[in-house]
Design goal:
Number of strands: 2
Oligomer: single chain
CATH topology of the domain at 19-165: hpI Integrase, Chain A
Structural class: mainly alpha
CATH architecture of the domain at 19-165: Orthogonal Bundle
Helix content: 55-70%
Strand order of the largest sheet: 1-2
CATH class of the domain at 19-165: Mainly Alpha
Largest sheet: 2 strands, antiparallel
């Protein structure tokens, strides 16, 4: 037998395409009592950060010294060194409260500790003064990477148990944040621009590819062509939609509907009225 060519590069992972998969993963970690991974899973979905940043969050990132929870927090990204401000939504706070309830940890007694670190991270944090800043950051990054590897292993076990067929990993959490942000705001044309800023991407196309929207659109092209060829092979005339899509802002759409109503009430000519409304819609296109 000839030598097999070794494949290089990493397999691209996708966001979670289906909400049921997210729910099943959450239920898996709950059922196993793996509350640290449950919390990390939720933080990934709700904060949109890399796993290295998720696993190095501290109680002080979420609480003031008087015990009150924060609404925003600033963190320094391990990969870029950039300081970013995160918004802590109610769902994120709820996940943290559930973690506290299940583990019995007291945030105030562990105020400067990592929420979800490993023994090596806690040890380094306690011995920080023994190292230079450069040495400390290098050792801590290695400890975080080791912890991230443990999370990836448990994540894979959960994904296998939940019978998720498409490729996912812990990095899918960050991508899912972006993917469903677009799905939740279908009429906001600035969502991609906001995500581009959150992810520090250089252009919109990078963001579209990263969060899986570009791939989803590609898959739709394949499916549409498949349906087209199937119709031909079955002797059925394929339906080709030639009508252009005219994207409008909600307020412009309401204005056009209002004008349509006024024209109907005034008994204006139907043909001329439709042409006028189409012309108005084209001017309002985004």
């Amino acid at each position: 037998m000839g030598n097999k060519t070794k494949q290089t590069g990493k397999t691209e992972v996708y966001p979670f395409w289906y909400m049921k998969d997210i729910k099943n993963m959450m239920d898996y970690f709950k059922m196993k009592g793996q509350w640290h991974w449950y919390l990390a899973f939720n933080f990934g979905l709700l904060l949109g950060r890399r796993v290295s940043d998720i696993l190095s969050l501290k109680w002080s990132d979420f609480y003031y010294e008087n015990g009150r929870m924060k609404d925003e927090t600033d963190i320094k990204e391990w990969k870029t060194g950039k300081v970013v401000r995160l918004y802590i939504c109610e769902a994120c706070k709820d996940a943290l409260k559930l973690y506290i309830d299940k583990t019995g940890v007291d945030p105030m007694e562990n105020y400067n500790d990592y929420i979800n670190g490993n023994a090596q991270m806690y040890q380094l944090l306690g011995d920080k003064e023994e190292y230079s800043q450069e040495e400390y950051e290098e050792l801590m990054m290695k400890a975080i990477q080791s912890h991230a590897a443990a999370f990836r292993k448990q994540f894979k076990s959960a994904a296998d148990a939940c019978d998720i067929k498409y490729p996912v990993s812990t990095h899918s959490l960050r991508k899912t944040f972006g993917y469903f942000s677009v799905k939740l705001h279908p009429y906001d044309i600035t969502t991609i621009d906001k995500l581009q800023g959150i992810f520090s991407h250089s252009d919109r196309n990078t963001t579209l590819h990263y969060i899986g929207i570009a791939r989803e659109d590609e898959i739709k092209l394949y499916k549409d062509m498949g349906n087209f060829i199937t119709d031909i092979s079955n002797g059925k005339k394929p339906v080709i939609k030639n009508s252009p899509v005219v994207p409008l802002k909600a307020e412009d759409f309401r204005e056009i509907l209002s004008k349509c109503w006024d024209m109907a009430q005034n008994g204006e000519d139907k043909f001329n009225g439709i042409n006028n409304l189409i012309g108005l819609a084209e001017k309002c296109m985004v």
